[in-house]
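Q: Hi! First time doing this. I have a protein sequence and I read that you can turn it into a structure. Is that right? Here it is:
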Amino acid sequence: MSTEQSLNPELIEQTKHQIRSLVSEIAQLSKTDIAPEEFYAEFLNRVVQALAAVGGAVWVMSDEGRLTLQYQTNLQKSGLRDNEEGQRQHGRLLQRVMAGGEAALVPPHSGIGEDDQDASNPTDFLLVLGPLKTDVEVVGVVEVLQRAETGISAQRGYLRFLAQMCDLAADFIKSRQLRHFSDRQVLWTQLEDFTRRVHGTLDPYLTAYTIANEGRRLIECDRVSVAIRRGRKCRIEAVSGQDLFDKRSNTIRLLGQLATRVTETGDPVWYSGDTSNMAPQVEDAVQEYVDESHSKTVAVLPLCRPEPTEEERDPEKVYTPEEPIGALIVEQIEDSRIPETMVHRVAVVAEHSSVAMANAMEHQNLFLMPLWRALGKTKWVLHARTLPKTVAVVVAVVAVILALIFVPWPYEVTADGTLEPVERSAVFARIDGTVKQMHAKHNDMVKAGDLLIELRSTGVAHEIMELTRQIATTREQIVSKRNALLSGELRDDEKSGQLGGEINELEAQLDNLLLLLEVNREKEQDLKVFSPRDGRMLTWDLEFLLEERPVQRGQQLMEVADIEGPWQVELLVPDDRMGQIILARNRLRERGEDDALPVKFALATEWGVKHKGKIKEIAASAEVRGEKGNTVLMKVDISDAIDRDKLANLRPGAEVKAKIYCGHRAVGYVLFHDVWAWIQSRVLFRF
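A: Yes, that's right. Below is the predicted 3D structure, encoded as structure tokens:
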């Protein structure tokens, strides 16, 4: 009985139906848009199942020109893993099939081509090999491990079936290449648009904004940020989708720190959950930022200036890599996967961004670039229609500048001060005590020698009483001892001499006590405070300030001034203005004139009336006086400035605004001397 007669027809039909079903599945699979890895797995499993083979593998040509294993099933049964020579022969065999472009059957331990030993089947299985080819090239090989004991007709059937399946797989590859070319065309269009936009401006901040927003569309990620390096730190200048953002927020601050750390290393950083291969400082910065932003994927790429070409290089100069000028930060909020297409697109965006940002920053750093930019925007002023106006404006500006330089103008130093009587005296406490009684009040007229205040001091009174008691006791002792000495009761000369010595000692002690009593009597007299001159009491609210209050020696109690006599203005001139006053006085002395500089002033009680005076005295040193700062006291003689009939209406301490004339200077210096002084002190002056 033949083999065909021994088989069950129903089993044969069922097997054919199963094979047709697998073929239909492969055909449908070739029309889907799935990843190549997934397609090759489904494809090979069905081919192996349809052929009832031991195993198989799919080999695809990589970009480097080498065959790489895409998927395999039971390939370990071939025994190639531990056979290096067999692997080499097997690789040569696959290369021959790809070069020939035709399916092949290779029996165990045999080869194809002219050199069977070089390209052969080193396994114990029948190898059914089918090339994966498109209309242009062969891109891979499908390999099936089949049992060697099958008949010739079955082997030929295997070969035809695998060739047909490879054609279906080729349809998948062709359609994928078409989609890839279409996607690449879209990508090139997007890249062209991105390149045009990112190189369209030379403003660093507009360039950063364009990179962030257009780069996000090209990369197809959640967020793109751009950092610009200033000194040793990076600052975030643009975030995709945000026209304005708070640069002081924790997220932006931590992102800037991360960019700074990455630019210090100079190497790109890709984070998708693992930081084990990062530098410690970068790892800490990444963790801090991820904890704050909750991003799943973060890529930070330094932006560097392009290196000079061979033609641009100076052969005598050693070029060192320049430090990064910024960083490109790409983020995925929810997805931690990093597709290969995303890596390529990020690299392209980073490359173009580096060139655009380097050009923008180099242009921005040109000398006086803001001025040249402003001049470029105003070139319309030279057009024929506006030229007369331009000439007129230029002439006017030149005339103003010349006037500021050559036209003289009075230079005056402004100072604040008060109006004070010339004859005034301060009244001080000459001893510690407590105010007992006051005999004068504010605004009272007093004369020299009038009693103003009485003080009391329990210490002085107690000291006088104690000294009086000691003096009386001492005198009694002296009288008693003298009586004993004169009575003649002591006949011993030695005792008489001793008694005389005691009397002398008591008399010396008495003299000391009397002297102390006199000193305390003088202190008692100091408890009464008298007016040092005729005048008016100026101190306000004496009762509140002094009544029943303790005072100390040297403390000023009040002030008495002769308001009927001459008056003067006391000015507090800032120390930084004294240089002009000294120069003006020196010029007057050189010409042999009086160095008393003229002063114009106005009183707070009558701002509309101006008075004149002359400086009569300048303090030798400056002092710090509260809010006025470091000032120099000047006294101004106003004896001829104010009508004597108006003196009754004047008040001591009235506010005065004064201007001290210091000669003529250029108008520009008079108007802008404060600015020039600031430049001299803060810019031109160096320690």
